[in-house]
Amino acid sequence: MAVVHMRKRVSLAAPTTEPEYLTPDERRAAGRALREKVPRGSQAGWSTPADRGDPIEILKASNEGRLLSLVPIRFGRMSESPFAFYRGSAAIMAADLARTPASGIRVQACGDAHLMNFGGFMTPERNTIFDVNDLDETLPAPFEWDVKRLAASVVIAAQHLKLSDSDAARAAAGVALEYREQIANYASMRALDVWYDRVDLAKFEKIYADEDLLSEARKRAQKRLEEGRRKSLPEHLYPKLVSVQGHRPRIKDEPPLIFHPTAEQAPGMESGFQEAIAGYRRSLPDHIRTLFDRFQWVDAALKVVGVGSVGTMCGIALFLSSDDDPLILQIKEARASVLEPFAGKSAYPNHGQRVILGQRLMQSASDVFLGWTTGVNGRHFYIRQLRDGKISALIEDWDARMLRAYARFCAQALARAHARSGDAATIAGYLGSGRTMDDALTEFAVEYADQNQRDYRRFVGGIRRGEVKATVEG
What is the Cα–Cα distance from 372 to 360, expressed in whole angstroms? Predict the structure, then answer.
């Protein structure tokens, strides 16, 4: 995963090995040396391989193990636009990225670093920070895979907003530039300073050079902050999701998006999921376990979320400490990362553990209730608080300036996450100080966005021909 900062020197006088320190300059030199094997220019562009898999077949394969009744909702959400399709087709791009030249520099990759998987959320200290906020696919992998997926998502978002081709390319170039400059900054920082660094909303000033844009961004951010905090409050969540039937609170059924599963769908329901809750409890740190023990399980239901997760066993669980003191946890099924066939298997026996430990490594602060467990049926899950101040971007009315600024903010957060798990000096050495890698990544993003358009047309055509069953909501 991370590039080791030590090298082994074998002594002829003894059978032991002694590590030798590598300076930041030596690690940068190692990164520069990688350009000989994998030139930065080779990262440019994208052309469809003749033996590329059918995108519909890849998507169908990713449905294995999902609730088949919900798969049409997944495909219906993906059919809304090429941007929505991109969000749900991480498996397609993972296979494509594996065909591109690999730098050899591995980090804890997000695995699905598109524009909408970044956002704000509240830290345990109740401050709001900006970070990667969806790590279902996280796995050690080449750093550039994340940067390419983010840059391509920016171009696809620009197309969704009907911006010009030049605006789309400028936004992607901004991602590459911001990532490179931030990695260079992290390469010169002390290890502890990198670890403690956070991308908080006060850093808007460093991203938004235009005063009018800064003022607008502040207003939007403040509005979203207030909305996120309000929706996270128990007095908002509890009545919205829970009704009292007799003396027993129960999560409201709103099929097909929220519903109580059958015993066949969710084995363990009869026992109140005691085994799964016990497993989750064991995954918590001791001090959080003490806090969790103050709450008692009351009810659980399945809840459809997102785009790519639709059809997996995702739900919410209600716990109470007292009548007016609820804890609502989100439960998400963790399946093998889409990167696994190409980057190697996870080191962890439970994919929920893979997600949580990757999240703790990449994020500068994480939910205190993060944990994992295994269901009676052998499915893996990770658990966190529902919402907890989570703020996602609403891009529908953005102009080119807002998209560029937000994309740079995402690139900054991605660079910080990679600097925590990988070696910023080696990455900086490979990237260099010029625009060579920026141009290569921009070219890739633009051309891959065209590939996404072709895949989307193939997908929509498959729906029309009956190859794919899709349900459009509302």
Answer: 13
Q: Are 425 and 365 in contact (CB under 8 A)?
A: no
Average pLDDT for 144-154: 98
Same domain for 185 and 282, yes or no, is: no
Residue that wins the pLDDT comparison between 241 and 337: 337
Amino acid at 227: E
| Average pLDDT along the chain | 88
Does 422 lie in the same domain as 373?
Answer: no
Higher model confidence: residue 22 or residue 447?
447
Q: Which domain holds residue 64?
A: 23-223+395-465
Q: Please say which residue of 353, 385, 417 terminates a domain.
A: 385
Whether 443 is covered by a domain: the verdict is: yes
53 secondary structure, DSSP code: P
| Pairing of the two strands 106-109 and 242-245 | unpaired
Do 145 and 259 sit in the same domain of this protein?
no
Residue the block writes with tokens 């962890």: 348
Cα–Cα distance measured from residue 240 to residue 318, given in angstroms and rounded to the nearest whole number:
13
What span, in angstroms and rounded, lies between the C-alpha atoms of 364 and 362?
7
Model confidence at 206, pLDDT cuts 50, 70, 90, reads low
DSSP conformational letter for 79: T
Number of alpha helices (DSSP H) and beta strands (DSSP E) in the chain: 18, 16
Q: Are residues 293 and 433 in the same domain?
A: no
- pLDDT at residue number 231: 56
Q: 254: which DSSP letter?
A: B
What's the confidence (pLDDT) of residue 267?
75
